[in-house]
Every structure is written in C-alpha cells, then in structure tokens.
Amino acid sequence: xxxxxxxxGLRSVTNHPEPEPAAGEAIVRVLVAxxxxxxxxxxxxxxxxxxxxxxxxVGVVERVEGAGGQALVxxxxxxxxxxxxxxxxxxxxxxxxxxxxxTVLGIHGRDGAMxxxxxxxxxxxxxxxxxxxxxxxxxxEPLAAAFEVLEQVHVRPTERVLVMGDxxxxxxxxxALNLTGASVTLLGKHERKLxxxxxxxxxxxxxxxLKKSRDYDVVVEATGSAGGLEAAVQLVKPRGTVVLKTTVExxxxxxxxxxVVDEVTVVGSRxxxxxxxxxxxxxxxxxxxxxxxxxxGFDRAxxxxxxxxxxxxxKVLLDFRG
Amino acid sequence: xxxxxxxxGLRSVTNHPEPEPAAGEAIVRVLVAxxxxxxxxxxxxxxxxxxxxxxxxVGVVERVEGAGGQALVxxxxxxxxxxxxxxxxxxxxxxxxxxxxxTVLGIHGRDGAMxxxxxxxxxxxxxxxxxxxxxxxxxxEPLAAAFEVLEQVHVRPTERVLVMGDxxxxxxxxxALNLTGASVTLLGKHERKLxxxxxxxxxxxxxxxLKKSRDYDVVVEATGSAGGLEAAVQLVKPRGTVVLKTTVExxxxxxxxxxVVDEVTVVGSRxxxxxxxxxxxxxxxxxxxxxxxxxxGFDRAxxxxxxxxxxxxxKVLLDFRG
Lengths: 322, 322
What we know:
19 strands, homodimer, 7-stranded mixed sheet, 6-stranded parallel sheet
C-alpha cells in the first residue's frame, strides 16, 4: 500500500505492507490524514518512533477481525489513538490513554494514518455523521485534545479564561472553551491567526498588547515553548488553574515558589474525548475550516510536509482518496 | 517589651514598642512561639521582611480594640497569620490568605510572635481548649498547613499517599493524611525522624530503600529542595496529584513533558485551616510532642536559633511565660 514512512528520514513508498489486525481490530481505509506538530517532532526523533506516522484521520471501515463489530463495516469513522490492554486499572476506568502497555497510533508501537490503511480496535472508532466533510471530520482528534481541558477542569461560565499560543491547538482550545460561555481570550503573536478565533467570538490579543495582570481564573498554556508555564503563573489568579498542553524536548529553569504561595493548580493535559469534539464539528459549534492551510495528494506528501513546517501554516492535510 | 528583632541581623531587645492594634484587633500576650523554617529563611532575606519574626504562637488575649470581640479577653488562643482587607473578592470568599493587600504575621507587613505581645484581628483567633499544653497548641499553625492538603485535594481512604521529606512539615503532613485511612508512606533520609511518624502508624521508608515505581495516587512534596517536583512526578501515578509545599529561593531546571503526557495535577499548597489542626492536637489524633527538640526562655533566644538551624533539629520553641 501507499504510505509515508519515517525511519532514518521521511519517505513516501508504495509497497508498505498492509497492517495485520488483531482480533477485535478494524482495518480502516484512510480518506484524509492531518499533519500534526507531533508528527514534525517525530521526524526530529520524539518518542523514538519508526514506521508510519499520523494519528489524525477520517476513513472507512473495510473489515473487522473477529466476530464483533461487523456493523461498522462500510461506515465512515474517526478513531481514538490510544490502544490499551483492556485489563489494567487504567483501562478498566476508561483511561486507556494511560495504560502502561498502550500503543499509540503513529506515535508509539503502531503504524499510523499516513497510509492507505490503518488498524485500530473497533472500540476506538466513532462514526462520522453524514454531511460532515472529510476535511472537517479529520479535526476530531486535535479538537478532542482541546475538549480534554473541559474534561479535567470545571470552567465556569462566569470565569475569565486565557489561552496562550495561537497555534492550531491554542485556537482549537479557545474555540472549545468559548462554548462554555466563559470570557475567553486568545493570546498570540500572529494577527492573522488570532483573527480566526476572533471571527468566532473569542477575544484575541497580541502578546505585545497584553495587560500583564493576574486576571484569569484559568490559563491554558499552549505556546509550544518550555517557558510557557512560568508566564502562565504570572497571569493566573491566586488559587487559579493553569492547564499545561505543551510537550517539548527542551527543559527549562522554573521558579516554583509562586505556585506554592498563590496555591495555583497546574493540570497536565493531553488526548481527549472524541464524541464532544465530533459533535462540535458537525454542528459547527466550532468551525475548523479556516484552519486548513492546504490539502495534498499522496504524490505530493513531500510538499505537504514542507508546507507544514512553515511558520505561517495551520493544518496541512494528506488526501488518500485519489 | 521583649522581642526578637530582625533588621541587619537577628537581635534580642527589651525595649521594642508594643504593637498598636487597629479597630477589631486584639492584643495577645504571647506564651510560647515556635521557630519555623520560614523564620530561618527570613534571616537570609526571604520576603525582605524587617521587624519581629514569628508566626507560630499560643497566647492570651489581653484586650480588644473596639466594641466587638470582648468575650475573647482572657482567653488562650492561637491565630491565623494572614490578615486580609475584608472587602476584596478573596476575603469575601474566605480566602484572606490570598488577599492582595494582606499582611502576614511576622512575614509581611506585620510584627510577629517572637515578642511579649502581638496584634491580630479578632476574627483570626481560635480559642484553645483547656488541658491542651502550650507546647502542643503552638503546633496549630504548622499542622494547619498540613491540613491544607486535605482542604485542596480529595484523598480517598483507598488511595496510596507518599509524603516526601522528613522535616517538620513532612512529618506533620504524613500524620494528618494518615487520619484519612489512606495508606501513607513518609520518605526521608533520617531514620530518627522517620521513627516519629512510624510510631504513629505511618509507613516510613529511607530514600535509599525506596522502590522507584509510579505507585502513588497522591505525592506531597515537602523536601524543601527545588528538585522535589521532578522527583515527585516520577513517583505519582498517571492522572495522579502532586502537592507542592516547598518554597525556596533557588530555581531549578524542570522537564515538564511527563506532567503533560501523564496528565498529572500539581497543586501549590501553603497555609491551612486552624480548626481541624487544633482538634487533631487536642484529641491527640496527631501527637506533636515528639517533634519538640527544645524549649528556651527569651534570654536564651540566640541559643534557640542556633539549635533550630542544626540538621537534626525538629521544632524549637521560645518561652515568653517567664
């Protein structure tokens, strides 16, 4: 099958072996896959991953291995990327994303979505309602990571929320949090990116225009920079909550005393729930369309990756439909 | 009056002016004051404080300024150290410890307890039940800081808790958390200090004997070292909670990625509720007596401070009763 493969470098091949599903897993024919910042980190060595990258996709179920889940065959689906053992304490509590033996689609121990076919447990799949374009459904995974903030933190409609960082995750987080009725401000460096959020009712402020006061009940740190936490603590109210989204290789000197004196809570936040994300996309509660920078066929995968690393880029999609 | 004063250095004087209470404040005649690690930090410049240090005390109310609170006169009391404006959002929510205009007894903007008299708002005072010795009642403030963990974090009786650090705060936190029924382990470097907690039913483990696995639902970081957070994150379960108690001048390089990937929550924690602490002391749910290293009269305050900085010391008390 066709696939983007990362080993020593990133290559496009047409003879990659198809995935072999375990019992209870589905083979999904990929329609569209997204390029995520994590994929770019992987090409720099993050997680030591080798194989097919990609964990954002929409596709059609081709077949299911084993007796159960046959009703899914032929359905268009998106899929959660963490595959747990199903037996440990985390899996039993529905937290397969923290299963110590997990594989993660295109990130850890399992070939990913930048190929004609992928395999995932049927329990990970969620059907996409008719009428939602592939180019929007593919945002379910990154928007789910934004909804994870609401899964972890009670954001009250009367509160003031600041989202730091106008990258894809920052914009999606601001849009998801804005659905709560809270007063949401997105902080960034790029007027053009801020405008995407502003057009959907989010307050958006350039970093250089920010009034530096401790006014926010919740600060979501999505800067992608190791210095983000310290900056966030300077903007959150005493007893407030900082949600940490940034994962970087780099470490940073951090003064933790303000955290203790002001009794700030810091919540690490990663992958999130698919259902509310897909619901928000299909109802256009969050309009993801302005985040698409480009759609490239498989034969132009190189070009897609080159565009994805450019500074002004938002989401670049790989089209496997052709 | 007699007072320990910190300006350029630490001195004992006998002619320090008595505090002048504002309306609604009480003058308290100090019986016993405790020396806290924060007091030692203050003598190194922490908070830039100048004046009478000391925020752990038990005393007798001499008089109250204004009409209210006269019933307190003659009562033996302990007192919360944060004095708020009474009008801001934090004060209205009962969080005077976070009032931006607060003074803090012996730490910020208000002379402290190492003197014959101190002043505090009557609302900060809590009567000590008869029969509780002064040398135990004086532990209410530090034990309250331990109870703050339970005020902020739901510790379930079925959970495993690790307290890192066998200093006074670590031991008190382990003893307070042990009341919940949770399985509590105190981690430290000093067999003699660990034994104090072990004698009251806490599991206690020397650092060199610790099995390094991520087994704990809650980790309380009370090491007093800037590196404590990173060590704590390596011992807490994914989705678990780290309570940060350490305040140090020093900053530290921290790798925050494990926090995000494992969705750990970090809760900064400082001063706490007096009532449950005093209750635990008076009912001997927590027995603080083994933590007393020495009791010194005012004329031996120098000696008391010298002992307090020694490595093996626990709580050193200043006795103003003589």
